[in-house]
Structures are given as C-alpha cells and as structure tokens.
Design goal:
alpha+beta
Amino acid sequence: MLCYYAVELAKEQPNYYYSKGFVVSPMIYRRSFVCFWLHAILVISFAATALRAEDSSAENRFAAENDVTWTSLGKSENDSMPIGNGDFAANVWTESNGDVVLLLSKADAWTETGTLVKLGRIRVKLTPNPFVDATDFRQSLRLKTAGIELDAGENHLRIWADANQSVIHVEGSLARPTTLRTEVEFWRKTQNDSVNWPGKPNPEVMSGEAPPQVAPDVIFPRTTDRIAFCHFNSESYYPYLLRQQHLEALLGKYPDPLLHRCFGVAAFGEGLVSDGELALRSATPSKIADLRIVAFSQKSCDSPKTWLSALDSVIAKAKNADLSANRSAHEKWWREFWNRSWIQVSADPRAAEVSQSYAMQRYMIACSSRGELPPKFNGGLFTVGHDVPADSKQTEGSHNPDYRKWGDCYWNQNTRLLFWPLIATGDLDLLKPWFDMYLNALPLATDRTKTYYRHSGAHFPETMVFWGLPRLQDFGRNNPSYEIKSRWQRYHVQGSLEVIAQMLDVYDQTQDAEFARKSVVPFAEAIVTFYDQHYPRNSAKQITIAPAQSLETYQLVAINPTPDIAGLMHVLPRLLALPPEMTSDAQRTAWKRLLTELPPIPIGKTAKGKLPPLGQGDSDGRPTILPAEQYGKPGNGENPELYVAFPYRLYGVGKPELKLAQDTFDARRSPQNTCWGQDGPQAASLGLASVAQKGAIAYFTNYGDQRFRWFWKSAHDWTPDFDNGGDGMITLQSMLMQCDGRRILLTPAWPKDWTADFKLHAPYQTTVEGRIEDGKIVGLKVTPEARAKDVEIISSE
C-alpha cells in the first residue's frame, strides 16, 4: 500500500519530484520536519524497491541491452535507423551538415499501378546546429521506447512514431535558442494546381484495355502553420489485370482496391510558420523543438480536396493531443510488447550477435506489421534510395526510394518466414495483416477458381498481388490460356496450406473460437476443397496431384509433390480435431475421406549420399524422403522433401522415424543458411543442434551493407532481406522449444555451450519462461501452472 501510494503520489502531484527511486515533498517538509522524515523514509524505501524492480524487469533490461549507438553523423540514406508504429514508419538519418532526414513509409501507400511507394521525405534543419563538430555526439536507437535519440551536450532530440496514432514526433530541448526549418523533398513530379485536380480517368485504362501511369503527387496551397501533400489514384491497374487474366466478368463485383485510394502527410508544430509551399520554420528561435508529422490514408475518396477536408480533423486531434500522455501510452505499448516474449543469448560474441539480431528483427516487424497489409519480404517499409533523373532507368545500384527488386507482389514462400516466429513470441497482432490479406482475397480467388476450372474451392498462386491474383509477369501479358506461363510458378499453389497451418497454430495458442469459425475454417474449407475437386484419383482411389510442381525447384512434371502431401497430412487431422460445433458434418466427412485418399510420403534411396535425380537411387543407399513421387531436373535451390520437418512437422524430435528425416536432411541437394534457405529451421526441427546453431549464426550475421547492419544483406531478394531475420528467429525458437499438441518440448536442439534467458508462448494460452545454462534449465516458470506437466526437457545431440 505504501509503495503504491508513494509512486502514485509522485506521478499525480506536481510538487513531488519522482526520479531514480526518490519521492520528495517540499509541502510535507514545510508542515513538519519530523513528519516529513518519517514519511520520506518509508516512501523512499518502498518507492526505491518498486522502481528497482521495474527497472530490472526482464523485458526492459533485455530490450535495452540491444540498443544501438553511433558517435558520428551520417552521410546519406544508407546511414538510417528504423522507427515505426506498425503502419507509419520512417528511415531516419543524419547528414554531415547536421540535418535530420526522415524517409516516410506507410503500409497502405499503394499507387494506381499497384506499386507500394514511399510517402515522401522530410528534412529538418537546425540553425545553429548543435550536432556538427560536437565531440560528444551520440545517436541511439532505444528499443525499450522505440525511439531515436540525438544528443550532444545539453542538446537532445527524440524521434518516435506514436504506437497508437499515425504521428511521428521530432521533439526535444536545445541548449540555446535555435531556428528549426523543415521542408518536404519529392522525387515524383508534383502537381501544384489547387483547382484542377488529377483529371478524369482515361477510358481505356478504366475499361482494362491499358495499364495506368503513376500520377504526380499533389501539393496543397500553403497555409500559415502547416504543409500537406498526398498521392491520389484517379485510375487503377485492377481492371487491366482482371482483363489480362480473363476475369473481366468480375469487374464491378468487388471494390477496386486501388481506385481513388489517397494517402499523404501533413507536418506542423508548435511555433512553426509557413516558409513557402514546401517548408515550415520557427517564427522565433526557441530552445524547444516540436515537429509533428501526420500520415493519413483513405481507401476511397472523390478527390484530393475531399482527402484534405478529412485531414483537418486528423490535424486538429494531433495538435490538441496531450503530448506527455501520448508518449506515456506509446511507451506502455512498447513495454508490454517487450514483456510478451524474449530470447537473450549469451556465452560468446557470436551468441551476443544472435541475441541482438533476434531483437532487431522482432523490432522491425513490430514497426511495420500493424497496417492494412503485411510488410514485404523484399525490404518491408525500410527500403531506401536517392534522387535520380526522372528519365533515367532504375537500377540496383542507382534508384529512387520507391524502387525494390522483385517488385511489389507478395511471394508466399518468402513472406511467410516473417510471420512464423510471431506465434511463439505472442505477437499475434502482427500476424493479422498477413491473414487478412488472404481472407480478404478469398472471394475473388473462389470466383477465379470457378471461372477457370468449373469447380469449387479456391487457390492462390505463389506470387500474387495483394488482392489475390497472379503476378502479371508470371501469368503473362496477352496470355490466351488460364495457365500461368512462368514455369517457376505455373502449378505452385501449396503455400495456402502453410497459411492454414499458421492459422491453426494461432488457434491452438489462443483457443479463440471466433477466430476459428470466421477465419480458419472458411479459409481451410476453400483450399482443401480445391485439392479435393481439382485432382483426379487413380485406380487405387488415391488422389494424384498432377500436373504439379514441387515448389519452384521441380517444375511442371512433378507428380504428388511432397510439400502438398505433407501439408494436407498436417492440416487435415488438425481441422478434424476442432470442436465439432465449429465445423459441419459435411466438412468433417469430406476431410476424413480426403485424408484416406492421400498418397504416402514418397521414399526412395540416396545415390552416393545425395537425392537421386529422377527418383531412382542406388540400392545400397540410405532410404530418404523424396521431393515428389516423380520429378524432373531441378530448376531452383530448394529442398522440398524437408517440408515434412518444417513447416509441416510430420517428422521431428519425439516423433517416429526421426532417423529417416535426419538422413534426408544429410542428403539434401541445396544446403542454404541465408535468405529463404531453411537449413536452420529444418535442422532444429530434427534435433540437429550443432547444424541449427550454425544456421542461426549465419542468418543473424548476414548483415547488410548499410550502417544499420540489421537491414539484412540481399542474398536473393532486396535490402533489407527480412527472410534472413525471419529464418533466424524460427531457428532460435525451435532450438529452445517445439510444441506437439499439448506436449511442450524444451531444448530439443539447444547447444550446450550457449546460455539463454527466454520467454515463449505455447498452445493453450501458455507461456514458458526460464534460463538454460550448461545444458540445464533453471528457474522454469510455466503459466498456467497446470501446463507444467506437459513440459518435457529433451537432451539434444
């Protein structure tokens, strides 16, 4: 009671000073010297105990241990640090003249061409600049509060993206009166006409006869205290794509996801006035910096003027907000985020790198996965670029900030790796955009299946635009058929089974009946029905999945590919295990029948320790799982046969025939521990501790060439290559904990020379927390306690 009273009293009373565990009241002192000291001794004692406990709590300590600090100014966009609130994000860097630059991104900033672009760039100038030539300059990324701090002497700036509002703050205190000037920088041609907004849609574009071009951004006439700009989609790529894919009959059935989408930014701040159309400056020099940058999007509006009218209330709310209260709420969100889960590894320098990289990947996904759409594998919201001539060709070496290699479509195999680890971290809110993308696209995918194949169900291509249709570069322009032209993608549809598996894992953890009824079952029903009705049966009444391919590696001629069979074997029993009230009799009957009709996982023998090229092995070789019942020459570097371990968990620690799966891993054709290569997760699933450890190190030290080295190096994709961090997180988690139904297996692939503190989430609303040291777990805490009986500690190799 006294502890609570002391802390709350200090927070609520303006005459109390609350710092470093001390609560001091001058009023009490004035009333009674004796009473003051009796009161103060109790208050100080209890408050200090409470604050020490708060400051040493695991989530705060582990987050803070992974902070990053630089002691010199940057030069360019390649010297940026990331911030974000899950939807609105920024790359923030300094330049040699002391300017602070923010490259702004938003998860729903999709242009009329179906391209995810940046919002714009904001430059902040301070005159005189306290950071230039400062010998004590420090720039720090503070994970605990998700902010970037710039310090030199008594000068302090903090830049943070409010976790609960679409506002980025540049705020701080300066040692002497300073003029702040902020200006907008563009690389897309701007339109300044406040009357003639982007013209009427081109009839050819809107009929789907031609693709649109990117319209210019719109700058609004200056006002006395703010600058504002937006991008407005007066046309859309959507009808063109539907027509190209023979789906013009569906035009008008579903809302166009691009047409009249409008997104933009307003900037304003205390004491700032207009300095031209593109800039604000301090009315008078001040020791206080207060710049607020608001992002605002509308999925459908009549014109930029309509957007601007709606923006007024957004700006008013941000202007009138209690900055202190908003900052407290922001810090509370991040405090609770870091308290959900952690893995902090120690013992040697490599372990420390793994630990910091794990925290950085989780932080960056939290910064970019609470918006309308999920972050992209090829850079997410944190790609950078610089101004190039408008008529110049974009290249990997010289490009503007909107450029990203591999384009703007979603690739299931790559993107799913960002989201698997969020289940064990308990970051289920960050999974929502990933699931929503598929669920929102399901009706169109169902209609597409019916149009093409005249049967029920739905299928999703490996590479797709966010509303569910194939990437046009793969489908082919003016393709007269329904088949995707690309041999890498033509029959590549198994990724939807993996999305079902992820949804089922979330249900297992939360036991959320509404999520199961409204999301898991409808999506699973559609995907499973496609497999059931699309493929023929052989004379033994087994399904024959053909024509097919085994991922991108064994193309076009595969029969009964292992990932598809394993996926169905994994999800069907789990669907049948759902409470009966969540599914219908007809669904359960169909799922049971299909399960009996699946062919077995194909097994052959290795040829000289490697997979046989055509399913024909040396009779003296070891039995191994094959990529498919029949397959041809490889066309990529994947190991489809190991999908039985990860992601589909048919084979693994504590399960039958582990040696068969381990021999299959040893015989894999394409070892890979970078980007989407899955040696780490698959080795961990199979209890191969030393191999998994090497994998975790490889993923988490595949640093990029930017100053913030956790903008992962582009192995196959683009920087930052989030597959590196995603694979690393999956590997590290699986080394520590694997779940099988109610069973919780701890340390199934943990190396004895690494120490770790951890907290992870398990099925049935369970958390598992403890420390592993010298191969032994100490301080194990399982919540709820009743689940402790389901924990098994496994000795790894």
